[in-house]
């Protein structure tokens, strides 16, 4: 398994180009199942999760061609099987996003349950309940969801007890070709949900209210083709900005969108960073200062994003003062804490809270990534730790960060990927 070997102590300086959003491109790729016409997607990040989704669609009969400019040409006219096997779904939970499109377009789907995940139980009951309310017959047994509907799904009034991003996305896609109107209450408001809605509307769907907690979808008979540029990745952006803040440097994130991460930028200013931005760039200048610890509670958008929690806990471990972080979205999203402690961090966990006392420095160690954002936080800690840090199982990172060691190295970090390093 590949590892990252990092020698800490270099402040980051320079420019980093932000890639397309992982959590936008995954539902948008699944949504291509809804039309028989050609679709062209650009600003696609080169990530393992994207490759996995392309493999999943390909084995259904979808034609996918990567162009020289790295955009993807997609055609789902010849889809001939409606099956998402466990071997693909277990590596990427977002495979559940093919369920809604398959049932509404083809009247059938056999999709593996995603199974366990490091950060929490993460059931998909809302996805199933919503489709049942729209008229699908669904059996959940032997680890699979078997769904079918005679004729078309029917529009319905759906409401989520808990805000669910992919739950909202799955049911919004199912509603696009359903008969009549669907209203989704307590819908997710994430920018990636809006990106999916904008993409679907560009193909002729009739979706309104996205970005608020009530989305209305008027079903149409068919969608056209088109081309679409995927949103920039707000979590990748935030991760590099936190890296600059932790190392006391100054970087500019380009090809991004500041209004996607307002709350994160406010938190970085609270930590003492000087932030400036324009339409598609953000500059963070830490002026060699040590960051101040911050407190926050993760919430659905527009609240503080859970996907930035691990990165800010890493910042708090070397910041001045005490920090308190409350994680309300997932029940087990502090696994990076014990790895950070091995680097000398002073973190106490109690229930869904992480209390930190900033240490003057961390010490490099051999640590293990457990999930995507936890691994990012270990890399950030390695950038500031004294000595060498070896981060194992970085296949987690490869799922959500395009060329992370190249991007960090060109900002001045001492980081390299090693195929199989011995312990340090
Ligand atoms: C999406 O996951 C993101 N993934 C996650 O990003 C992100 O952390 C999460 O939303 C929250 O923002 C993608 O978009 C591909 P949820 P999702 O359904 O949709 C519970 C990353 O690092 N729930 O919004 O799976 C669930 O257990 C990843 O990029 C149910 O109980 O998350 C959780 O506690 C990690 N039943 C809460 O809702 C359901 O049917 C929110 O989960 C669905 C969800």
Automatic annotation (TrEMBL):
Record keyword rRNA processing present: no
SUPFAM superfamilies according to UniProt: EPT/RTPC-like
EC number(s) given by UniProt: 2.5.1.7
Record flagged with keyword Nucleotide-binding: no
Active-site residues, record numbering mapped to chain: 117
Residues recorded with modification 2-(S-cysteinyl)pyruvic acid O-phosphothioketal: 117
GO BP term, example: cell wall organization
Location within or outside the cell: Cytoplasm
All copies of domain Enolpyruvate transferase, residue ranges: 7-408
Annotated PANTHER family: UDP-N-ACETYLGLUCOSAMINE 1-CARBOXYVINYLTRANSFERASE
Protein name per the record: UDP-N-acetylglucosamine 1-carboxyvinyltransferase
Gene source species: Candidatus Berkiella cookevillensis
Organism ancestry: Bacteria, Pseudomonadati, Pseudomonadota, Gammaproteobacteria, Candidatus Berkiellales
């Amino acid at each position: 398994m590949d590892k990252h070997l990092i020698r800490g102590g270099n402040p980051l300086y320079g420019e980093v180009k932000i890639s397309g959003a992982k959590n936008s491109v995954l539902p948008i790729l699944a949504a291509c199942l809804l039309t028989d016409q050609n679709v062209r997607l650009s600003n696609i990040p080169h990530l393992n999760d994207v490759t996995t989704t392309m493999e999943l669609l390909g084995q259904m009969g979808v034609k996918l061609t990567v162009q020289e400019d790295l955009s993807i040409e997609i055609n789902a006219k010849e889809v001939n099987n409606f099956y998402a096997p466990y071997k693909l779904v277990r590596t990427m939970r977002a495979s559940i996003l093919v369920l809604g499109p398959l049932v509404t377009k083809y009247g059938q789907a056999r999709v593996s349950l995603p199974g366990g995940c490091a950060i929490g139980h993460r059931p998909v009951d809302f996805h199933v309940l919503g489709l049942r309310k729209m008229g699908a017959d669904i059996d959940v047994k032997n680890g699979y969801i078997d769904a079918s509907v005679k004729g078309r799904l029917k529009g319905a009034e759906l409401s989520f007890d808990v805000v669910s991003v992919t739950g909202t996305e799955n049911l919004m896609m199912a509603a696009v070709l359903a008969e009549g109107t669907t209203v989704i209450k307590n819908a997710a408001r994430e920018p990636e949900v809006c990106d999916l809605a904008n993409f679907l509307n560009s193909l002729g769907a009739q979706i309104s209210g996205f970005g608020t907690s009530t989305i209305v979808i008027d079903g149409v008979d068919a969608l056209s083709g088109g081309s679409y540029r995927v949103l920039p990745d707000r979590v990748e952006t935030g991760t590099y900005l936190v890296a600059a803040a932790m190392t006391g440097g100054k970087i500019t994130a380009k090809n991004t969108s500041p209004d996607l991460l307002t709350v994160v930028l406010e938190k970085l200013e609270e930590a003492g960073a000087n932030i400036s931005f324009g339409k598609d760039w953000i500059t963070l200048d830490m002026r060699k200062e040590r960051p101040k610890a911050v407190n926050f509670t993760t919430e659905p958008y527009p609240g503080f994003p859970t996907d930035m929690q691990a990165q800010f806990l890493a910042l708090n471990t070397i910041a001045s003062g005490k920090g308190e972080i409350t994680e309300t979205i997932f029940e087990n999203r502090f696994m990076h804490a014990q790895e950070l402690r091995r680097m000398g961090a002073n973190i106490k966990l109690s229930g869904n809270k992480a209390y930190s006392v900033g240490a003057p420095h961390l010490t490099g160690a051999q640590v293990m990534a457990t999930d995507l954002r936890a691994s990012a936080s270990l890399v950030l800690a390695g950038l500031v730790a004294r000595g060498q840090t070896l981060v194992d199982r970085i296949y987690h990172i490869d799922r959500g960060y395009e060329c992370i060691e190249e991007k960090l190295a060109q900002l001045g970090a001492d980081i390299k990927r090693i195929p199989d390093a011995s312990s340090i």
